[in-house]
Every structure is written in C-alpha cells, then in structure tokens.
Amino acid sequence: MTLQIEKSPIVGSLREPITPEGRDLLDIVTTHLPAIGAVAAENDRQGTFPAAVFEGLRKDGVMGGTVPTEFGGFGVGCMHDVALVLMKVAEADASTALALHMQLSRGLTLAYEWRRGSSVARSLAERVLRKMGTEGAVVCTGVKDAPKGGIVTTLLPAEGGGWTLSGRKTLVSLAPIATDFAIYARAHVPDGPPRYALAVLPRQSPGLTVLDNWDGLGMRASGTVDIVFDNCPIAPEDVLLREVAGERNIAILAGQTVSSIAMLGIYTGVAQAARDLAVGQLKRRGKVTSGAVRTLVAEMDARLFTLRSSVAGALAVADALAYDEVTDPAERGLQMMTPFQCAKLMVNRLAPAIVSDCLTVVGGASYSGSNPLSRLYRDVRAGGFMQPYTYPDAVDYLSGQVFGPLDEGQQG
Amino acid sequence: MTLQIEKSPIVGSLREPITPEGRDLLDIVTTHLPAIGAVAAENDRQGTFPAAVFEGLRKDGVMGGTVPTEFGGFGVGCMHDVALVLMKVAEADASTALALHMQLSRGLTLAYEWRRGSSVARSLAERVLRKMGTEGAVVCTGVKDAPKGGIVTTLLPAEGGGWTLSGRKTLVSLAPIATDFAIYARAHVPDGPPRYALAVLPRQSPGLTVLDNWDGLGMRASGTVDIVFDNCPIAPEDVLLREVAGERNIAILAGQTVSSIAMLGIYTGVAQAARDLAVGQLKRRGKVTSGAVRTLVAEMDARLFTLRSSVAGALAVADALAYDEVTDPAERGLQMMTPFQCAKLMVNRLAPAIVSDCLTVVGGASYSGSNPLSRLYRDVRAGGFMQPYTYPDAVDYLSGQVFGPLDEGQQG
Amino acid sequence: MTLQIEKSPIVGSLREPITPEGRDLLDIVTTHLPAIGAVAAENDRQGTFPAAVFEGLRKDGVMGGTVPTEFGGFGVGCMHDVALVLMKVAEADASTALALHMQLSRGLTLAYEWRRGSSVARSLAERVLRKMGTEGAVVCTGVKDAPKGGIVTTLLPAEGGGWTLSGRKTLVSLAPIATDFAIYARAHVPDGPPRYALAVLPRQSPGLTVLDNWDGLGMRASGTVDIVFDNCPIAPEDVLLREVAGERNIAILAGQTVSSIAMLGIYTGVAQAARDLAVGQLKRRGKVTSGAVRTLVAEMDARLFTLRSSVAGALAVADALAYDEVTDPAERGLQMMTPFQCAKLMVNRLAPAIVSDCLTVVGGASYSGSNPLSRLYRDVRAGGFMQPYTYPDAVDYLSGQVFGPLDEGQQG
Amino acid sequence: MTLQIEKSPIVGSLREPITPEGRDLLDIVTTHLPAIGAVAAENDRQGTFPAAVFEGLRKDGVMGGTVPTEFGGFGVGCMHDVALVLMKVAEADASTALALHMQLSRGLTLAYEWRRGSSVARSLAERVLRKMGTEGAVVCTGVKDAPKGGIVTTLLPAEGGGWTLSGRKTLVSLAPIATDFAIYARAHVPDGPPRYALAVLPRQSPGLTVLDNWDGLGMRASGTVDIVFDNCPIAPEDVLLREVAGERNIAILAGQTVSSIAMLGIYTGVAQAARDLAVGQLKRRGKVTSGAVRTLVAEMDARLFTLRSSVAGALAVADALAYDEVTDPAERGLQMMTPFQCAKLMVNRLAPAIVSDCLTVVGGASYSGSNPLSRLYRDVRAGGFMQPYTYPDAVDYLSGQVFGPLDEGQQG
C-alpha cells in the first residue's frame, strides 16, 4: 500500500507569496539564503551577530521590505508574505530570521500607524519609515523591561519641553546594528495619570548604551541584548502618548497581531528545516526500512502540514482584518488575536515535537554540536517565550474569550 | 491578562461557502438541521436510519446537491462547500452526515467522471447523474468486500453479453433508502487479465439483498449495512472497466480524493459540536474558575482551530487540482492525496482528543447515555476507519512519498 | 535487531498477590472468570446486571473477600491484592469488577474503621462486617447526591431518638443485589452545626427505593443506579457522626484512599484486556509487517508496563501507610492520596490511549458492537469520573500540594 | 477542593536504598553533591570534564562503589541502589552522573562476570576488579565504533601470542581520567570464524590515543570522547572471546541490562531537578494563580511519579533476575530486557516532556544560558540515544517480543 514517486513535494500552505511585492522581496531574499546558512553554525557557536549578512540584506533593500513604496521601501504589507520570507530565512538560520523580524515587523506596524493612526502618530511614523526606506535606518523595538533592577522604563517631562527616558529593556534582537530604537515606556504626564507611550530615539542619544549580554539557549546569533537608558533626551514629536497606564485596551490587539504574527513563519521554518535535514541524512544512509522511523516521518509530515495550515489560516484572518474599516476596532482586535493565539499555541507544541522526532530518527549523530539539528533543537524552543503570549497567558486569553475573564484575585 | 468580550465567535476556516451553489445548498440544509438534531439521540439508541429526515432532504433537492445543474442538481462541485455542508449536518447528527456523504460524494465523483472520463464513463455518469437529479435516485457505493466468507466481489461475463455480479459488500451507508448501487468488483474479462470495474445496478435487481445488519459502536443511525449479490445481471453499458487488477495506479488517487475528502467535514463537525455542548453545559453551571477546565478549553479551541485550518488547507488543494488539466494525472493524484492524508491523520487524532476532553470538563454527567457527548464520543471514533486510509496505510503512503515504498516482503 | 521468543510474558508489576489471603481470594475468583466473561457482551448490550455471576461469587465467599477472618471473611486487607483481583475480573468484564469493587471496598473501609475508629465506629463496623462475613450481606455505598432535584441527602433527628434519612444518591453500583446501604449524609444535629455522617440501613427500610435507571456510555452491567430515601427511619447506633460539615479534614484522605485506590486495578485490567484482544486478533491474521502497527504495539506494551508500575507504586505506599500508627494522620492521608492521584491521573490518560490504539491496529472490525474492543472503548472512559478525584479536582489537589491552595475566590 | 500542607514531599519510588552497601555509598556520594553542583554550569559551558570532582569521589572510594568488598570496593550489587546514586548525582549534574555511570556499570558487569562467567572470564574480571578496588583504576568501556572511517575495531593475532587491537571507539564517557579501557572488538581467531571479544588494556598502551573531541548538545562535561587504537598489543589473558560474530545471542541481554539499566536513574534525576528548580523559581515569585501553570505542575508531578515508578519497576525485575540461577539464561535475558526497554521508552518520552514544561512554567528566564533549566533541556535529550536501545531499535525489540522478528529484508 505504497506508491512510488520521484520527488517529495513540500505540501501545505505558506508556499507562495500572495502579493507581487511579496514575490519581489522573497526573490531577493532567496539570493541571500546560501550566505545566511553558511555562517549559521559558527555564529551560533560564538553567539555572534551576522553583521555582514545584514549588510548584504540592507544593500539589497531587504531592510525596507515592509516600508511603503512611498518612502522608498518594497511596500510589502501582506503579513502572509512577510511570514513566508521569514520562514525561508529561518530554514537557513533561525537567528537571522528573528533579527530580521524585528525590522520587518517595525515596518509593518509603522505603516499601520501611518494608515490608521492619529495625526501625531502618522507624522512620526512617516519620518521613521522614510528613514528606514531611504537612509538605511534599522529600528529595534524594546518592549520588555529587564528584570534586573525591576525598574519600569519611564519618560519624565524634561525642562524646556520634551522628555527624558530612563530604564532598561531586554530581549532587543537586532540591536548590534540598530540605528534607532522604538521604546515602550510609561510617561509621567504633567497633568494627568501616567500613560503608555512609544518613544523613538537614535542610537547616538546621550545616555543610551547597547549591551552585549545575550547568552541564550538558542537563537544565539540574533543579537538579542539589553539596552540601557540613562536620562536620554527625546524631542516632543518623537513620543507617542497612548492609553492611560493600567487600563485594558483591546483595540491594541490588532496592532499587536500586526506586529508579531509573522514570527510564526520563523518556527515553521525551523521545523521544516529539521524535517528536511533529517530526511536527507536518512536517505544518504540508504533504504529506510525501520517501521518506527517510517511511522515518525509520516507523523512528522502530517504535523508539518497541520502547522503550515494553521499558520496560514491565522495569517489570512490577520491580513483580511488589518485594514478592514468596517469592523469595530476592539472586535477586530479579538478576531485577529484569537486565531493568532490558536496557531501560536499549536506551533509551540508541534514545531518542537517535529524537531525532537527528527533527532530521534537520525539518532546519536544529531546530538553532536556540529550537527545542525542540535542547533534547531535549541532554536525552536524560543517560540514558547515570544509575546504575545506565553502559554499561561495564552490560556488566560483563550479561556477568557469563552468564559469571560477571571476576576483579578482569580488569575495569574 | 484576560479580555472580556460579549460573544465567542467560532474561529478558523471552514466557515463560509466559497461558491454560490454551495451557499444555496447550505442555506437549504440549514433549514433541516433542527429536524436532523431532534431525532439523533433516539435513532442512535435504536440503530434506526432517519428515513423521514432523508425524505425531507430529498424533497428539497439536497440529494442532488452535487449533481450538475445540467442534470437537475444544485451543481455544487466545490469540495470545500460539500465538506462545510457535511460539517453543519454532523454538528446536528454525525450519522446523518455520514449517510448524506455517500450520496454527495457519489455526485462529485460521477460529475468528475462526466467531465474527465472516457466516453463510456461519461455516458454512464450522465445517465446516473440525470437519474439522481431528476428522479430522486439515491446511489450507494460499495467498496469494501465483507470479511464474512472472504470472497472477492466479482463480475463474470454473462451469456448473451453483459455481466453477472456476485459477492458481498460491507459498510454501505445510506443503503436503507438506496435506489441504486455503484459496486466495485473484479471483472473476469474474457480475453485478458482480471480488471477492476465499477458496476451500477438498481436495488430491484434479481439476486440483490440489502441486509439490516449494522451494529456499530457509533454512527448507529447511518444505515451502514451489507449488500449481498447473487448472480445479479448487469447490462454491458452499466459496467466501467478500469485498470488491470493488482496494478498500482496512482492516477486513481485524484478520484479517491474527490470521492472521500469531504468526509473530513463530518469529524470536524463532531468535534465542534462536542466543544459547543461542553462549553454550553459549563456556562449553565455558572462561573468557570477551575484552572484545569480553563486550560483544557483553551487547548480545545486551539486544536479545533488547527483541525479546521488543516481540513480547509487540504480541501483547497483538492479543489484547485481536481479540474487542473495541466498537471500530469499521476502527479496530480499525489498532490491531492498527500494533503488529504496529512489532514485526515491529524483529524483522526485531534477530533477524538477534543471530544474526550469535552467529557473531562463536563464530568460524570457526560458519561450518561442520555448526554449527547456520550454519542459523540462513539461517533467520532469512526473517522480512523474511513478509507482512504486507515492509520497503518496512511503511514505507508506518507512514508512511501518520502522514502519510496518498501518492497512487498517488507510491508503491511 | 529483533529477537525471537516463544511466548510473550506479561511484564510489569501487579502480577502476583503479596499476601496468602490475597492468593486464596485470587485463586477462587480465577475459577469464576470464564463465567464472568461469558455473559459480558450480552449484559453490556442489555444493560443487565449479572446477578447469577454474583450469586456464584457470593457462594464461594468472594463477597466477603475483604471482611476480616474474625467475622467470617477471607481477610484480605492488602489493597494491592484487592486491586489485582479486580484487575483480573476486569480483564473478563469491567462492569463486574466495578460492582465487585463496591463490596470489597466497603469491607476494606469497615475493617479500617474497626481497627482505627472510635468505639462507636468500631461497634457499627463490627456489626456490618459480621453480617457481610456470615450472612451474605451485600453493602452498597452511596456518596454522590443525585443532581436531579439538587437536594442534599439529609439525616434529621427522629422523634423518640434515632434519625430519618431523606434524599437521593446516584451512581450506586451493585445496587440490584444490595442487602444494605451505607449512605453519606448531612446530619442536622440538635445542638450544634450540621455534621457529615454515615448511615447504614437495610434495603427493606420503609421509604427506600432502588431505581433501575442506569444508562451509561459504558460499565453498563454494573448495576449503577439511583437510590431514593423518603424519611427512612434509622436507629441511633447505625449512624456515625463525623466532622462538622464544610470543614476541611485532611485526615479523611487516608480513608478515601483505602476506599478507592483498588479501583485502579479495574482500568489496568481493561487496558490489558484490550491489548491482549488486539494482539490476538492481529496474530490470527498472520504475519504482522506494518511498521505503524508494530510501532503502536511496542508503544502499547511500554505504556502498559508504565501503567502497571504506577498503580503498583501507589498501592505499595497505601498498603505501607494504612496501618502505620506513627505518622500523623493528616500527613499520612496526604502521603497516601498524592501517589494515588498521580497514578490515577496517568491511568486515566494511558488506559484510554491504549484501548484506542488497540482499535487502530485492529481496524474497522473493532468498531462493530460485537467486537469486545468496542465495549472496552466505552468502559475504559469511566475511569476519569471516579472519585476521588476527577481531573479538575486532581489538578487542584496536586497543585495545592505544591503551591498551597488557591483562595476560595480563586478556585473551582 | 485543595488542601494545605507545609511541605511537598517527593513522592514515588526510587527514594531509599535497598541494601546497606547502597546506603553507605549514597551517604558518601551525598557529601559530594554540593561540589558537583557548584561546577556544573561552568563545565557545561566550557565542555570541561570535572576532574577535581572525580578525584574527590575516588579518594572516598566511590569509584569502587560496585566493586565487590572482596576486592576492596563498596560491594554495591543492587542495580536499584546504583540507579538511586546516579539519580542523586544527576540532580546536581547530569554529566557527572553519566561519567560516573561508566565506572559503576563496569564494576557491576565485571562482578557479574566474576560470579557467573567462565574461568577465563572470572580470572580477568577478578584482576580488573582488584585494580579498581585497591589501585584506583578507572575503567572505561568502548562499545560503539566511530563512524569516522567506518572501520570495525579489530583484534588480530600477534606474532608470539596475544593480540593487537586497531580501530576507533566513540562516545567513551569518563575517558579523560581513565586508567584502563575495556573495548569490544571483533577478533580474527586463527582457526575459525570471527568472534566478538572484550579486550582490556591500560591507557599507557603503545598506539592508544585518547582524543579530546567531545562537543555534544548536552552532557558536555561528561568527557565523552573517541579513543584510537593503532596496533595496540594485548596479552592473551586480557582478551575474552565471546560468541561467533553475527550470531544472535539473547543470553547477552541479561548482561546488557546489568550494564546499562542504572542509567535510567540519570534521566530521572534530570527530570526531578528540573521540576524542583521550576517550582522553586515559581515560589520565589509569589502566589501562583495561573490555571495553566498549576495544571502543568500537577501534570509534571503525576508524570514524575510515573517515571519513578516505571524505573523502579524495571530495576526490581533486573535485581531479582540478575543472579537467579534457575531461569534459563536466554529467557532470563528477555525477562530483564523487556521491562528495561519499556521503562526506558517512557523515560525518554516523559523526562524531556517534564523538562520542557518546566521551561514553559518558568517562562523566558529559563531560556537564558545562565539558567540551569537550559542545561537540563539539553542534557535530558541524551537519554534517547543511550544503548540499548534507541527508539527504532526498541520498537523492533518490543514488537519482536510480541509478533516475532521481521525477516532480514523486512527490518531496520
């Protein structure tokens, strides 16, 4: 009950770009994949950021992939296509994909602000996008406060107008080559309650220090470091004030989805790479007759298909709703976030399982540091920690969609 | 970390028909869902076929849902839409959906033959389709020989031309109201090796007996019985000769996919129904605070999203390739079958897991024969036995795609 | 890399009785297994209690298996041995094992009361045990109030002393042949807060009705029905007053473990029976070469080994601590309950998984109502609903052991 | 439904030594655990063997832990106790446990030879054991030929009697401090077919080179390197000739079990350490209210219990049968190996799952190279590659026990 074929086509969704811009970007990125893959092992070992790879990507305009054409970019606005690009990059090196995601995601969200935001937001977004599209700006986003010290990154009003930024952000990928930073902070507004804010500042800002402190289990070449801010001055027009701190705002779910959903491509790429490596290593050894190996490989392909279908399904919803002007923003946010979280939960389960089974079918050789599967085993585990959401938060979010939230005292 | 919303929208693919014909069919079927659901429990208990339900469906033309409009049918050719209709029916009663699948699947494959087959095939297909579209014919397919007796169902040349059919088919759903049967048999061709063949014959044929022997663990109202053929005479034009028996023919994979892939909607519907029942029963009890229950429900929704995405992904490939005239038929068959099998393997894992978790969160009440979850627990397990393929055969198929087949002596 | 052997020994723990009394009981029970198995299918189909089987067991003294020899019983006090006996019975018929568990468990807990309880408890226990050991009493325990009506079963002080019992208990297995009932109720004590209580009353009590309302998904021959109490009079000495209602009392965990842990043998037996049936059916078909089938069977045996080891491990702790006079009772209760719950959680996961895989390897034949695997698929699912605890409660208990309990407002 | 307790006792088997010798050895090893744990992180990072730790263990006699007292050792012959010691060491550092296992396992198998072997075997075993017990010999076993070059390690008859050894062994843990090597080789016997053989030779042997080439994904401090043999001379009495090469010999299964089963303790220890680290980190953060975290921790404890029970169950069988003189050696081998493989398969599934869930509940902090959980995530994955058997071979072995082996052409 088996049929012979010559080739084993990759099945499942997330195969072809949907937009012409996406096709163009993918074509150019494809020419860089050999170079990306060639340095992956050594950069992983040393924990070194692949600066030369990114210089090449920048020269070819890839760093402006999601910057609108109006500002000199490729103009890819389709999240599916961004995820597909990241998937292909991740098949060569997951760290590079994670770092690239930082820049492409920033372009997506700024373009989203530029199209849908307030006039202040549009103005700031336009300035930054133009810098990304024409001056080679590399913009890193800092979301998470560093646990060290436990301080909330804060904007204080500066004398004479403007602000000063102080604090420490962690897990800022791509930072080694960043020219600018977009930092989430709590702003102490003079006459009113503290508000969430986004501040953009150049790397040369006085008081800004980029650390070299990344030491991850995996994703070791992603340049994911801490940034320290010590009274960095920021002009008024470079700060976007948002909702009052502490208030729930489900409208932001749409923006969070736009910012983060393409990362699902990264972990899909890791799983696909592991599968292809394992199958390749097995085939080189000759006829595969072990019933257990054949069973695991069949399971692997079925799960990979499922993973790709789920990711594509969530991206399709996100792309359909991101610029939908009809739906209520809050409802739209939920409709985008829920499929994203469903797909993310399954990716974080299936991708590591696929990689682990790849090690099993290849055997002890895969446990060597020189076998790329051992890198993928470490890289793939990062997916569970990406925001939004970690597993416990995803459970709260998804069950909250069904039953309503637990009261404060009842939840994590 | 939880957000409140008013409603809990069903997320994931397989939500809306793609074609206008599909929309029309779904709209009509929707009006029958209350009646279908109303008799589900009692028919399950008694193992009774819902003849009145099907009479209603027939009157409204649903039994010609996949018959081309040229022959008086609804003309739904989109497998996605057929799967969606079956999913909605299965949410009301899985047995009804399984029986209905028999007829809708037959329409799909006959229309496929009518469009792509040999002239003999086209002629036979046209006759049967016309009968289905205008005379209310209900056509059941018999694929599997009954293990009782271990006899291969066989066509022997009859004196004076034509054939006689003898043997016994099992697992023929919908048979209680069948007007005609399409039976796979081995034909002893006078001058040549035995060939596979399809024979169509009316229920009134001399020597044909419809048994009443269904006693399944689940799907108890699907009228899935054995049919006995004792020298039934068949006219020459009612037999389609196919490939030489014993030869592998991967071109038939496309037809098998067309014939069977919509069944994935059935098990998706069972899982969705179980989830909705469980959530409904939980909500009626008041605030759900158990961490384990909330975790299981979040997992359930993520898995349901994945299941729907996978099924939709496989259907999209099948719909895209079914009438593709460019691709080599064999290659096309593989490209359709592989996603189908990947999705089926995951459906057969995820759907029973979802239903079982539904029982867990509802608790002991779900173990009562009067709780519909106990029926779904039995019904959903049928998915693993549907052809093509069972789990062992799917593993052989999928691993054969990767590594090539095992030699005869090496496989199951 | 495979070695040939003649036989396939059952591996894992839970193979041999530990005590001579356990050996004697097992030997006698073994002689009844063919009779038990012979009527299993038909009783399952009809939902009929195997009264003749139990008459046979009673004649041979099995119903007094756990009654101390002082009172005419076999004197089996080792929970491991009781679980082993139930496992062997469940291999023949799970319903019979579940019903027998009711009686053997009652003997164990009464013997436990007789050895460790208050003087009132000892006196009552002695009377009931003597009746079980010498007069053939069959004592059913009613724990769970019937959801119908939502009434708490209650003891009210009767005029002239004693009590009257009113309410309705559900899920009382073995009830069709019960001679006496041990009922948990809330007692309205004249001068004080309500207290938990255990009341023992004969079947002939005025106002007591044994319903015939069992209709389970599985365990259909276990005679698991509701009992209605309408002002049943009970003598003062037949009521044991316990802790104040609503108070937590971890000392009772030891008694709950003694009462319920042997049930783990039942689901172990179901899984073992399914495995043996599946392997037997496969072997009868000839050489098994399917890689998927061989993989599933290897997994099955590994999981069965694990299941048996876990159950044996939990029983070993329970047997060691049940009569330990040194350890603080509360601490002892936790030390017994925690392994029991760990093993139960894994049994409720692994046993259904094993049975489901048995259906998979056997194929469609197993889905027929006449194949015993279809009964085991239904029976095995009962395990998740047995007290203590269901899955959500087990998660609360086990996580509470690690982190302390959630506050009232935080938990289920 | 939660109960408060003060402490969270470790539940499950594998808690206390069974023999007095085991107790003594554990007590001494316990004093070294802080030192072992203190250097674990740095040695992992650098891939450095903890030579000072082993010097300390040697001084206290731990390296003679399984050497019979007759020869100056601790005389621990109970595999359960050896596994328990390795588990405790692995809780501090898995690499150290893996290296220590090499020596303790060698003592066990030599003592087994000394008690059960041929006179030649007894004599050689006695000499090596005496050297281990009184002279501080550290004996490493080389089983697996290095894939580099693909050469079978071979013994050729030397001129003037004796042998010369040539080849290359890989995955020889503990080698940095080995004084002697026990090498499996194929011996070209002058007048007869090639035979399997074991050769013992000192580190100073001419032609012997210990490489420094370990670079594992995990177990990085275990000193697991390649050893090259270039015409090393070996005296006749230092070679044990065994069965004819290529012949199946199930009698050796008993010896393989004795040699390897204690390693299950290592992976149990890794899982236990991960669980304790995760729970500790969670508790330090304050009240744990997340339903998902509490659910995962409950699952973790249940699986850890199961894992410990399974390992203890397999060890109990091995200890009972290792010196059983009654059972047929081949049958005994199977009876020891089957539970070992069942437990190993489950350990290799449950231990990595537990560690991965520990990362999930701790969150992103666990992904840092400085968090010990990231080391455990890598270390625990080694279990799947330990011999006997890897997963595909275990499936062949276990399914072969049930169905008989596949023919040569049918298997892996």
UniProtKB/TrEMBL annotation, chains A, B, C, D:
Domain Acyl-CoA dehydrogenase/oxidase C-terminal residues, every copy: 262-383
InterPro entries linked: Acyl-CoA_Oxase/DH_mid-dom (IPR006091), Acyl-CoA_Oxase/DH_mid-dom_sf (IPR046373), AcylCo_DH-like_C (IPR036250), AcylCo_DH/oxidase_C (IPR009075), AcylCoA_DH/ox_N (IPR013786), AcylCoA_DH/ox_N_sf (IPR037069), AcylCoA_DH/oxidase_NM_dom_sf (IPR009100)
Domain Acyl-CoA dehydrogenase/oxidase N-terminal, first and last residues per copy: 38-104
Start and end residues of each Acyl-CoA oxidase/dehydrogenase middle domain: 151-232
Cofactor or coenzyme needed: FAD
GO molecular function: acyl-CoA dehydrogenase activity; flavin adenine dinucleotide binding
Sorted UniProt keywords: FAD, Flavoprotein, Oxidoreductase
Family from the record: Belongs to the acyl-CoA dehydrogenase family.
Protein name: Acyl-CoA dehydrogenase
Organism: Sinosporangium siamense
High-level lineage: Bacteria, Bacillati, Actinomycetota, Actinomycetes, Streptosporangiales
